[in-house]
Amino acid sequence: MSYRKKVDAQQAHIYSLRLVIGLLVCLGLYMAYGWQSAPKDLTIHVPPDLRSGSTRKWWDIPPESVYSFGLYIFQQMNRWTLDGETDYQDNIARLASYLTPSCRSYLEKDLELRRNSGELRRRERAVSEIPGRGIGDASESRIEQHSINDWTVRLDMVADEYFGGERVKRAFARYPLHVIRSEADPEKNPFGLTWNCYSSNPQRIEAPAPPVTGDKHL
């Protein structure tokens, strides 16, 4: 009788060991899957000014990075070096990875509208930030964060257009760019951000006063 109890105890112990081994195998497979599916690259946004150091959550994108992205893409889109008809169209295609589908459709319609009205042919164009109205210069906020995934970037820009080497247009305007998070294709878009055109209509602003270069002596 005691021999039978000992055999039953050994079988129960063997069963418990098999159960533990099975659990360990399942745990190992789960950990292997997690390791395999983990991202190989992780984009960390660091503010440009590192003199005082910075502590950030890995998923947080600082306002400076959003503003720099918006300014860069907007300037690239509006840089026509030879002919606005071809340069504007080429810019839309070249920067497609940094645009949302709706924004690309909007810009393509804008291209056709400007082309039909004769605003592009043989036009050269460049836009730049108005001095004293950048993110670090203006007293008002240039970034409005709506959530962890979208922002409004307010750019105060001056646009110069040339035809045949002569400047034919200079305009000062505020552009409320809508920027959203997008990390679908880091190979083509390392910023992890896309331009979703405008949060509201751009507005004309008054020309800034010329900077004072020094004191005048009578």
From TrEMBL:
Pfam families, sorted: DUF2895
InterPro entries associated with the record: DUF2895
Keywords from the UniProt entry: Membrane, Transmembrane, Transmembrane helix
Protein species of origin: Pseudomonas graminis
Official protein name in the record: Integrating conjugative element protein, PFL_4703 family
Transmembrane segments: 12-33
Origin superkingdom: Bacteria
